Predict the structure.
Amino acid sequence: MTYHELNLIFVGAALVFFIVAMLSIGMMMRRSARSRRLSAAARGTTSTQEAAPANVRAPGRTRSALLVKYVITFLVVAALTAIFDNVIIGLGIVAYHADALSGVYLGLIPIEDFAYSLAVVLVAPTLWGLLGHARARHREDTSQ
Amino acid sequence: MSALYLGGLLFSLAGMIILDWRYKLFFFAHAIRAAIVLAVTVVFFVVWDVVGISAGIFFTGSRQWLTGVFLAPDFPLEEVFFLILLGYVTMNTFNGLGRIHEWMLTRTRPDGHP
């Protein structure tokens, strides 16, 4: 197995998790928007603006702001990886079997190492968001 | 054998904890949620590492900078702290960007504060 093949398995798993989590967050947000509209209608307020909390913005803008946040986080983590990895490879703490590598390097770093930066950005903030939305939904359900 | 690498990791981790504490970014925002995120992230990458090590793709080179404590063949204690740092840096960055975005929104809102 090459390093690229190894990464394909785990970045693939991270990507599947990311997509499934984003879809379920979207579903939770639509459901809570619907229940807000319903409870607003029950109170007799028909204006959707009044029904939505002040901090809720248009879904399109929220989505692109989220995408920008993901991209910048990846760039920061990849830049820090570039520095950190050069140090630990330079000190000889970690080593690679040349046969398993594609041969593309950034300084001392095999390009494959950046798969870790990509995967951590796909997994950690997404799980954080998923837990936050699940908590908010749970609170809504129990308060009704 | 030395504690240089572990020391460097702990020093960096201390920086992350200070930023987290100062701006309430991760554990200081929601401790349980942060613990779950970090635990899942570390386990995911430990599995990745172990598969990579057993496939012979990467391995521990010089042990000169390591404490010499190994949790498995070619899996030094330091790797766990590296993975914790990786997750912590990612979450501090992501939530820090969220904080900056919120700050920008209140700053530019026409009815908001200057």
Chain A has one domain: 3-143.
